[in-house]
Amino acid sequence: MRIHDVRSYLSAENFPKSEHLAWKFAELATDPVEVTPEVSEMIINRIIDNAAVSAASVLRRPVSVARQQAQAHPRDKGGQVFGIKGSYSAEWAAFANGTAVRELDFHDTFLAADYSHPGDNIPPLVAVAQAQKSSGRDLLRGIATAYEVQVDLVKGICLHEHKIDHVAHLGPSVAAGLGTLLRVDEETIYQAIGQALHTTTATRQSRKGEISSWKAFAPAFAGKMAIEAMDRAMRGEGSPAPIWEGEDGVIAWLLSGKDHVYHVPLPERGEPKLAILETYTKQHSAEYQSQAPIDLARRMKPAVDAAGGTEHIAEIVLHTSHHTHFVIGTGANDPQKMDPQASRETLDHSIMYIFAVALQDGMWHHEYSYTRKRSTRPETVALWQKVRTVEDPEWTRRYHAQDPAEKAFGAKAVITMVDGTVIEDELAVADAHPLGSQPFERENYIGKFRTLAKNTVAEAEQERFLNAVQSLPELDDLSELNIEVDLSKQAETKVGLL
């Protein structure tokens, strides 16, 4: 790996295109390096993972809305929309499928200087690959590039400290992945990356206060914009440049300003794109920083029960990282995170609610744990209000550690009972994390898929999909990656414009 220094430049300065970050990513995208077997296997795992969470969310209202919008754009040469037959414009298929993947906050994650769900790259790449009749090998190469760009940006450039949503890293990564998939030239990829970034910068209000369904639509929209950007670039249209480094560019006015230097790691020419191997998926449907605390609560439950049960708890303090405290903890100062009437999207960003329910139930369920009946249960509300978070510098240090063995997203829980008994335990990484007690392997991804698809996908259709996706390197008909479901019970939606 090499480190590329990225800063703002005056328009009058000599700053050749070859040094632009967007050009460096274009070079990365055109590097013909082979996808390693380990990366290929992990990409297949993540396509299975995305299908699993899509099957669980396919009947929900936001996903139904996105699907109906896509159905208004049929194409003879298009991509498939999850759950239904037919061919639709690639950008709208990507939007519908991206929303299905993101709706339950239940797929893969990578955390470093910023946050990301790199699995959000997969729906737009699959949709375009289907429309263009690409091969399974081409799709693997495109996804490997998209993950590499996403992870490298997340390592090098922090968006959240400036309240810019993390989808600003997604537009460029999808554009770069599309460049690899379609085997277009560096100039075209460069222009597409610039357009994709320019059209996908937004604030983090989508994840603040009363969180709405836009949290699921936002990355899907970024993927759609990246496809449109690549389409325009292939037709010869340009983009604002240099998009990150310009005098009035992203760094100068949206991020840390004209005097700041970012350090973005990039693979050398010919070096395999391995970034996907650094990412991790979720066993539980909730914000990633709550994965280890859920497992910790499950582990602590027997000791709490032996001490009198959760009704005899006086206080719970979670010692954790800056991010967990200020984004999903009491440091966010969001009253909605303590509100029994809050939306599902808000509850899955409340570590106080999540820890309380996991401690009471000894488990976590993607639907049951979020129902209004569950969130308003009196004994749950009482316990929930006793949970608070504090930032611990050591957990913050480990959150940002470069060494994967040191990097951690967990917490220490200190539970004080009414009689003064103190129960303490801590967990650095979730059980399903690569360094956890039960790291996810292929069988776990398949198990997650079967569990989440049970009520919506017929067994024969499950088997057909699993056989197809596991033969991806040799698969020529990428429509096989789509899944048909019974939509008779989909949520009611209002009539729209399209």
Automatic annotation (TrEMBL):
InterPro entries found in the cross-reference section: 2-Methylcitrate_Dehydratase, MmgE/PrpD_sf, MmgE/PrpD_sf_1, MmgE/PrpD_sf_2, MmgE_PrpD, MmgE_PrpD_C, MmgE_PrpD_N
Record's keyword annotation contains Lyase: yes
Catalytic reaction(s) noted: (2S,3S)-2-methylcitrate = 2-methyl-cis-aconitate + H2O
E.C. designation(s): 4.2.1.79
Record keyword Cytoplasm present: no
Keywords: Lyase
Gene3D superfamilies: 2-methylcitrate dehydratase PrpD
Boundaries of every MmgE/PrpD C-terminal domain copy: 284-472
Domain of life: Bacteria
Pfam families in the record: MmgE_PrpD_C, MmgE_PrpD_N
Domain MmgE/PrpD N-terminal: residue ranges: 20-260
UniProt GO MF annotations: 2-methylcitrate dehydratase activity
Subunit note: Monomer.
Entry similarity comment: Belongs to the PrpD family.
Record's protein name: 2-methylcitrate dehydratase
Species: Corynebacterium crudilactis
